[in-house]
Write a structure and sequence with these properties.
The chain has two domains: 206 residues, Endonuclease III, domain 1, CATH 1.10.340.30; 122 residues, Nucleoside Triphosphate Pyrophosphohydrolase (Alpha-Beta Complex), CATH 3.90.79. With 347 residues, it is of the alpha+beta class. Helices cover 43% and strands 13% of the residues. It is built from 15 helices and nine strands. Its cofactor is [4Fe-4S] cluster. One of its GO terms (molecular function) is adenine/guanine mispair binding. Keywords: 4Fe-4S, DNA damage, DNA repair, Glycosidase, Hydrolase, Iron, Iron-sulfur, Metal-binding. Adenine glycosylase active on G-A mispairs. MutY also corrects error-prone DNA synthesis past GO lesions which are due to the oxidatively damaged form of guanine: 7,8-dihydro-8-oxoguanine (8-oxo-dGTP). It comes from Polaribacter cellanae.
Length: 347
């Protein structure tokens, strides 16, 4: 049986019932695909339902304030996805009269949309035979064909896209793309794939040559940078604090944070108060307490943040405009969100 037919047959027996599978509305498909980048379905589903309730149309998303969008995204990480989603929603409304692009070449022009997302939307919503290639697809194809080309190399990206395109069922490309993604997620899993009940056992090169655990191959390119953060959590006598919106380009652009002192290594209380930023910020007497006895390690894709939260109590301080009663209204990185949840439960 042809690869695509066998895959589609498996999909019809095993597919997941997900809300974005019940529509061909490109806005909903786009939203789900952006959310599921770097995010498991189990986690993304709750966010998808929350977003579609708050922003049922692209017009609703476009007119929302960025801080509201970021607050609702809080916990998903990779916040550039939310900023790009919001930017493109405004572009669709203001420049395209609210009409979502209908072809791969037009869809991929939207900010934050790459080959994979454009292929998914074009095939599912508009029946264009453009093959998706994500982590699940790389894994299925590398194992089935026994391909050792690194999936994150230039050659690998081209090779796998070409193979994926050659396999797609042109009569139902949307279903085929969803089938191969589900097959990778549910059956041909990274760890403990279900080879004993696999419909492709008789033709899978990796299974035949005992390469299942070795494929796919990925080049190690990422160099992890260590950074040391000291957040100054201010509490004044009238229960105010400082939260500042992070500016410039970066992972937390548009999110709010406590005053931050970045150091070369983990520092103690005496080293903290001797920094220029601390003495500038606190000219008056303060009480200082280290909240976490051991630094919190927050791991991002390219950097690890070794973080200490310092509770600073002072009678009064300039620029303390945020009430602790309203602090939950502000979008913050998950690192700070987790701290706030723990800190406020004890206070």
């Amino acid at each position: 049986m042809k690869f695509s037919k066998k895959l589609t047959y498996w999909y019809l027996q095993n597919k997941r019932n997900l809300p974005w599978r019940e529509t061909k509305n490109p806005y909903f498909i786009w939203l789900s695909e952006i959310m599921l980048q770097q995010t498991r379905v189990a986690q993304g589903l709750a966010y998808y339902l929350k977003f579609t309730e708050a922003f049922p149309t692209v017009f609703d998303l476009a007119k929302a304030h960025e801080s509201i969008v970021l607050k609702m995204w809080q916990g998903l990480g990779y916040y550039s996805r939310a900023r790009n989603l919001h930017f493109s929603a405004k572009h669709i409304v203001n420049e395209l009269n609210g009409e979502f692009p209908t072809t791969f070449l037009e869809i991929i022009k939207l900010k934050g949309i790459g080959d994979y997302t454009a292929s998914a939307i074009a095939s599912i919503c508009f029946n264009e035979p453009t093959a998706v290639v994500d982590g699940n697809v790389y894994r299925v194809l590398s194992r089935y064909f026994g391909i050792s080309t690194p999936i994150n190399s230039t050659a690998g990206i081209k090779e796998f896209k070409k193979i994926a395109q050659s396999l797609i069922d042109k009569s139902q490309p949307g279903m085929y793309n969803q089938a191969i993604m589900d097959f990778g997620a549910l059956h041909c899993k990274p760890q403990n794939p279900l080879c004993d009940s696999c419909p492709f056992t008789n033709s899978c090169v990796a299974f035949e040559k005992n390469l299942v655990k070795k494929l796919p191959i990925k080049e190690k390119k990422i160099k992890i940078r260590k950074r040391y953060f000291n957040f100054l959590v201010i509490k004044t006598a009238d229960n105010k604090t400082i939260l500042s919106k992070r500016k410039g380009k970066g992972i937390w652009q548009g999110l709010y944070e406590f005053p931050l002192i970045e150091s070369e290594q983990i520092i103690n209380k005496n080293e903290l108060i001797s920094t220029e930023k601390f003495t500038d910020l606190f000219p008056n007497e303060t009480t200082i307490l280290l909240h976490n006895k051991k630094e919190i390690v927050h791991k991002l894709s390219h950097q690890h943040l070794y973080t200490q939260f310092w509770i600073i109590e002072t009678k009064s301080l300039e620029n303390t405009t945020i009430s602790w009663e309203n602090i939950q209204d502000f979008p913050v990185p998950v690192l700070i969100s987790n701290f706030l949840e723990e800190f406020q439960s004890k206070n």
